[in-house]
Amino acid sequence: MSKTTTSSKIPSSPWQKTQDSGTTGETACPIELHQQFASVVGQAFSLSGLLPQTARPMSPTEVERAARADPDAKPLNEGDLRRMKRTPRAKIIRRALALTQEEFASRYHMPLGTLRDWEQGRAEPDQPTQAYLTLIARDPDRVNRMLNTRSH
Fold first, then answer.
1. What pLDDT was estimated at residue 67?
2. What is the CATH number of the domain that holds 115?
């Protein structure tokens, strides 16, 4: 009887190397493959050449200059400002409080239709209402307590 031999050893663990006596060379274990891949990717995508070596605080003039040099951060001109829609203040306050239109109108005792008109830009709150919205924005819980707590 002849003893059978194989040209490659089967590893007892997937983390061990396998050796092939043929021309294919060495097959690396999963950990080595990961390390080799990581080193190649790390070299290919190294940020060391893109980032400044030492970070230092910038003066306001340098910040302004850098901002104006950025093509994606150009200042708005008058035409841009006229073209853009302004988000109504009532909507900003309501969203910051994470309330629906119905909840906001009910909690702060205002007509739902009026709130919708303000948010959709069909109407503007008058001056006393703007003051009321300012109070809500500054201390929403206190305004809610004052309006919705029954006194004995």
1. 84
2. 1.10.260.40
